[in-house]
Amino acid sequence: MSSENTASDSTDGISNSTTTQAPEPTTFAFALLLRPEYLSVVLSALSIVWLGAHGSLRRPPSAAPIKTKKGKKQPKEDKFAEGLAASDAIMFPILAGILLVSLYYLIEWLQDPDILNKFMRAYLSIMAVASLGRLAGDSLDVLASLVFPSTWVDSKGTVYHVDSDEHHQYVVDKATGQHKVLQDRKSPLPSALSMLARSKRAGDILWLVRHLLTEEWTVKFAMHGLVFVKFNLKLNDLLGFMISIPFAAAYHYLGWNILSNILSAAMCYATFMLLSPTSFGIGTMVLWGLFVYDIVMVFYTPYMITVATKLDAPIKLVFENNKSVSMLGLGDIVVPGMLMGLALRFDLYQFYKKQIKPEPVELVSETLAEDGTKSTTTEIQERRVKAPFVDPRGQWGNRLWCTKFGSLFPIREASSVWAATAFPKPYFYASMVGYTAGMLVTLTMLLVFRHGQPALLYLVPGVTGALWVTALARGELKDMWGYTEDGSLDTEDVVVDVGGGEKVAEKKGEEAKDEVDKKDEVKGIKEIEKESYDVFHFSISAPRIGSRIPTAT
């Protein structure tokens, strides 16, 4: 660290730092206990990574698409907007260095960093609106799931399911697999709460509220001959966006650290939603490229520490008390956090991969001989059947209501909740341990040497080392190295007719989805561009409410 004891690093030229001003020379453990800002740095970073990694969960290629009820359209799956390539291991440090040096000389030229700070705060507060809106919307989804879970368990271990289409609750008979509708539970509330709404009208109102908070709306936007956009959103997404605007405005005018921290955390969270390292090999190379960049910029140039201390914008977490200030730059969270999120998705991939079951398929083929006779050949092949994916979004309320008092995990009978939230996470937990160790070593070096420390110097070996050592110990190095999120693993076995018989063929799931997406886009354009077409079209469509829900008069 510098004389101000600033540990800094950057992934995009914007400050990523761990800072504390003039700590007393004392043991690390004593300082950690007496200075809560140190503990706040570590816990905040771990919390953001945990939330971002779980928020980035998507259907792994080892799972089948979500099962939908008859008559309902298959939901469109989220995709990462950007996947890293091997060349990014070189380009990231170069681009980060260019931006960092540019900011440094801009600050020196202006002589007054407040001018740049005002511009950066205004720009980033606007940019943070979308990020905070996403975080707030997902948080509201979690709160809604706590009140309106789709699965819950009573004290006897009986699993109850909530059917939002038929507006009733039911249990599954273990012997026959049939659904038994519960007539005494007229509301969507769980456990004893479901007995509160005795009247039909009270139950109908609760079903209406549940419908508004959990069902997706469809937004269409089109301009004739130019563009057609269609996407889904929830009421909570709109509410989250409305919440984000006053937060961003308040930060722009007040500049409070707590508001800056909220916006910074939201931008980290949104980055996890949009960016994927693609594979462990590429992610590791990118991290080690930035590892070298960080060391050079902190130890051998004045750029990093100067920008980190003079730039006041939502690009870092800031914790302070009467004597000291501690800061953690967003790069120290996002850079290793990307690989940690990939580790959690790999855990989910491994979980579903172990559930793939071979299913025998009889293949019959006919061949025509030169004399005109036909011969039939029959052979048995295996078709790989994937378990259907259970979306973890909206499942945390289910986990709470399916977990018995004193236990940390939901009961096994609630299989969908277990698959979504309690699947084994050895790689993610290993990376969390490695990240924590890296943070503690960073703070220790900060106190011992009282000089700016590049945090990635300790975080990168901690995270990457923990992941690769775990793979080696579990004998899964080949699986880990071969895992990728570029879509090539998303295949499915399909049975096709060939010459009057059947044949098992492998088809890439991404290719099939792209074909469907293109057909939907063409269909949507044709719907908008009729004989009497609209030059401009914008609509928001809500799913139809069941007949049991009262309508306004």
From TrEMBL:
Region feature Disordered, mapped onto this chain: 1-20, 57-77
Membrane topology: Multi-pass membrane protein
Keywords from the named record: Endoplasmic reticulum, Hydrolase, Membrane, Transmembrane, Transmembrane helix
One GO BP annotation of this record: signal peptide processing
Pfam families linked: Peptidase_A22B
Transmembrane segments: 80-107, 258-275, 287-305, 325-344, 427-449, 455-473
InterPro entries in the cross-refs: Peptidase_A22B_SPP, Preselin/SPP
GO cellular component, one term: cytoplasmic side of endoplasmic reticulum membrane
Superkingdom per UniProt: Eukaryota
Cellular compartments annotated: Endoplasmic reticulum membrane
Keyword Magnesium belongs to the record: no
MF annotations from Gene Ontology: aspartic endopeptidase activity, intramembrane cleaving
Family under the similarity heading: Belongs to the peptidase A22B family.
Protein name as annotated: Signal peptide peptidase-domain-containing protein
Taxonomic lineage of the native organism: Eukaryota, Fungi, Dikarya, Ascomycota, Pezizomycotina
